[in-house]
Design brief:
The complex is a heterodimer of chains A (about 475) and B (about 200).
Chain A: H1 5-11, E1 14-16, E2 28-31, E3 34-37, H2 43-52, E4 62-65, H3 82-98, E5 101-103, H4 113-119, E6 128-131, E7 145-148, H5 151-160, E8 162-165, E9 169-176, H6 185-196, E10 204-209, H7 211-214, H8 218-226, E11 235-237, H9 242-248, H10 258-267, E12 280-285, E13 292-294, E14 302-304, H11 318-331, E15 346-349, H12 357-367, E16 377-380, H13 385-394, H14 396-403, E17 406-407, E18 428-431, E19 446-449, H15 452-461, H16 475-483
Parallel strand pairs in A: 3-4, 3-6, 4-5, 6-7, 9-10, 9-12, 10-11, 15-16, 15-18, 16-17, 18-19
Antiparallel strand pairs in A: 1-2, 2-8, 13-14
Chain B: E1 6-14, H1 21-24, E2 64-67, H2 79-87, E3 91-94, H3 99-108, E4 111-114, H4 117-129, E5 134-138, E6 143-146, E7 149-152, H5 157-165, H6 169-174, H7 177-185
Parallel strand pairs in B: 1-2, 2-3, 3-4
Antiparallel strand pairs in B: 1-5, 5-6, 6-7
Classes of the chains: A alpha/beta (about 475), B alpha/beta (about 200).
């Protein structure tokens, strides 16, 4: 039977076909090509290995970085929060004991685990990639089958380099057409989640296809795959193409010489067959898509930025109605308010969804030569120390600082507020991150998920805004922008 | 892992959809490096509200959580399962679970039982009309009983078997170590390794 991309990758990693029937039928055992590790979900797994006297099977397929807890200021000083400091020290001790490569705070390759893997060239097409973090789906942008796992599974991978996985269903997300200026990958994925719901992808691997996806850069594809989990999907992926190969070529761990040629030959086979069938297909029109923003407390509660806060009465389903009522109350919003009239306090540009060079460049192009709304606090947190260095080499740090934003060190930061970067109760944030759950960015904080350019335009105007709402930038800035 | 065959305990109706793992356990509690001791962290933000169901007797002594659809969405944190277990929950009933949460539950002996939403609604009514009503969740027959409601539930066969037997799946996998070694011998040379480190 003609296979989809996800099925091909799966089949190439079966160590042992599941057997048995009925009550003790076993699922397939799959080999894991790359295991990414960070400080939050690994300590109990390392401890499990120690208690059982088991070695970590493949340190050479494992890499660790510090990201969730790390401060984005004063990184040369000891971490002030003692429990954070202990957790990071525990990772350092564990990596040393088990022989795992670690990029610590202060290292040029330190950063958000999902930014670091691709940037080093460790994420490649056709691989299986796992990490004790739900946003592992990011790596699917390369045509890898990439999944977030829990700590028990982290320990399982450490001990065996495999996972027992239940079979998945396949869903094609077809995005045809051309995005209009000011509309980006983030808007595509927010629109997809609003369309299929936070549980719509449950049990599925999503494959993003169509002309609009083909036209996207790797960084934009990562933004889309990153949020597959927000639709409940097991994973999301994009078939590799020349854009993928161009991104990978020359990266530290990309294949070299004859290995590169052999790899490309294999990667070229990684596409869904024309006559392969998906269990479900969903279509999205890129031509008519507008900038998207969330109004509620889950990522499926999103609308076009040009529309209004919905009313609970707009929802037929009783559970959705109750959820909307609760969300509006938490968010402090009135049904019918135009989204663009919502005033925010903080703008966060960062997270594994939108903290790569392209995201920073796009936001910098908006703010360059413009003035920040005086009541807005804006944090810019590059995804990795390497991204920070590259951005500084281009002078983006200066653009953001001149605008009045804070230029921080790399990490997960305000996406989940495990470090000091948190919202105050009631504080409203336009955030390029991935989750608008209650309290996600700090207890009582209110999150609106947006793209980098919407975040930047919002920082200029003080209310949720798209770039098209801005007055023209001063001429000198526009010239620099088009040169970049 | 402890064996699970059947459990009877006070049911807690949580009439809410999309209970994400940030609600089950907020991120600030994830800094701990232990696998136990998370009972104080369960629903930490919501428990500050005196009206929250777990702040009311007899629900505070509950062990069967009956939640709305899309339970356990969001972060992969297994701490969510640890917190539910540490508080005293043995099983969660919902019409739809997030995949990672369901997987984590199965590894830790917390039964994630999937029921039809109509049955969840019936059980909610029983529990709200007669607080303290016990719910029996029978993994052998895959049935939930609560008052006069008897409802079937779904769970995949492999997880059910491991729960019934209390099996550690690392041990199960290592029985096939020869297969793993044989597979490793066939991996192409172009696949990347993290060691020795190459830097840009």
């Amino acid at each position: 039977m003609a296979k989809t991309l996800a099925e091909k990758v799966w089949d190439a990693h079966v160590v042992r076909k599941g057997d048995g029937e009925g009550a003790n039928a076993q699922p397939d055992l799959l080999y894991i090509d790359l295991h990414l590790v960070h400080e939050v979900t690994s300590p109990q797994a390392f401890e499990g290995l120690r208690l059982a006297g088991r070695p970590l099977r493949r340190p050479d397929l494992t890499i660790a970085t510090e990201d969730h807890n790390t401060p984005t200021l004063d990184i040369d000083k000891p971490i002030a929060d003692l429990t954070s400091r202990t957790q990071i020290q525990t990772l350092r001790n564990n990596c040393q004991e088990f022989g795992v490569r670690l990029h610590s705070l202060g290292d040029a390759e330190q950063g958000i685990v999902h930014v670091v893997g691709p940037q080093l060239g460790l994420t490649q097409p056709g691989m299986t990639v796992v990490c004790g973090d739900s946003h592992t789906s990011t790596h699917g942008a390369f045509g890898a089958l990439a999944m977030g796992i829990g700590t028990s599974e982290v320990e399982h991978v450490m001990a065996t380099q495999t996972l027992s996985l239940k079979p998945f269903k396949t869903m094609a997300i077809n995005v045809e057409g051309t995005l209009r200026p000011g509309v980006s990958a983030k808007d595509i994925i927010l629109a997809v989640i609003a369309k299929i719901g936070t549980g719509g992808g449950q049990g599925y691997v999503l494959e993003y296809r169509g002309s609009a996806i083909r036209a996207l850069s790797m960084e934009a594809r990562m933004t889309i795959c990153n949020m597959s989990i927000e639709a409940g999907a097991r994973a999301g992926l994009v078939a590799p193409d020349q854009t993928t190969y161009d991104y990978m070529y020359g990266r530290p761990h990309a294949p070299q010489g004859a290995d590169w040629d052999a790899a490309v030959e294999y990667w070229n086979t990684l596409r869904s067959e024309d006559d392969a069938t998906f269990d479900v297909e969903v279509d999205l029109d890129a031509d008519t898509l507008e900038p998207f923003v969330t109004w509620g407390t889950n990522p499926g509660q999103g609308v076009s930025l040009s529309s209004k806060v919905p009313s609970p009465e707009d929802f037929g389903d009783e559970n959705a109605k109750a959820a909307a009522e609760r969300a509006l109350q938490y968010m402090g919003l009135e049904a019918g308010t135009p989204m663009k009239e919502i005033r925010v306090d903080t703008v966060f540009l960062g997270s594994c969804t939108n903290s790569r060079m392209e995201d920073l460049r796009a936001a910098a192009d908006i703010v360059r030569g413009r003035t920040k709304d005086p009541n807005i606090r804006m944090l810019v947190v590059p995804g990795s120390a390497r991204v920070r260095l590259e951005a500084e080499a281009e002078g983006l740090d200066k653009v953001f600082k001149d605008f009045g934003a804070e230029w921080r060190f790399a990490g997960c930061s305000m996406c989940l507020g495990m470090n000091p970067d948190q919202l105050e109760p009631g504080e409203r944030c336009a955030s390029t991150s991935n989750r608008n759950f209650e309290g996600r960015q700090g207890k009582g904080g209110r999150t609106h998920l947006v793209s980098p350019v919407v975040a930047a335009a919002t920082a200029v105007r003080g209310t949720l805004s798209s770039p098209s709402d801005l007055d023209p930038a001063p001429e000198s800035a526009a010239v620099r922008s088009s040169a970049a | 892992m402890e064996k699970f065959s059947t459990h009877t305990g006070i049911g807690v109706p949580l009439r809410q959809s999309n209970v994400d793992t940030d609600q089950i356990i907020p991120a600030v509690y994830l800094k701990r490096i232990t696998r136990t001791g998370f009972e104080d962290a369960l629903f930490a933000a919501w428990r500050k509200d005196p009206a929250f169901i777990l702040n009311q007797a007899p629900f505070n002594a509950g062990s069967v959580l009956v939640a709305g659809p899309d339970f356990g969405t969001g972060s992969s944190r297994e701490h969510a399962v640890w917190a539910l277990k540490d508080y005293g929950f043995k099983t969660v009933l919902s019409s739809r679970f997030a995949d990672i949460f369901r997987g984590n539950s199965g590894k830790q002996g917390l039964l994630a039982a999937e029921l039809a939403q109509d049955d969840i609604e019936l059980i909610w009514k029983v529990l709200e009309n007669a607080p303290g009503t016990e719910v029996t969740v029978d993994l052998v027959s895959k049935t939930v009983m609560c008052g006069n409601v008897v409802a079937p539930f779904e769970i995949d066969d492999y997880t059910r078997w491991r729960l019934l037997e209390g099996l550690d799946d690392i041990g199960l996998t290592l029985q096939h170590e020869e297969d793993i070694t044989a597979y490793e011998a066939t991996r192409p040379a172009f696949k990347p390794k993290t060691l020795p480190a190459r830097l840009s």
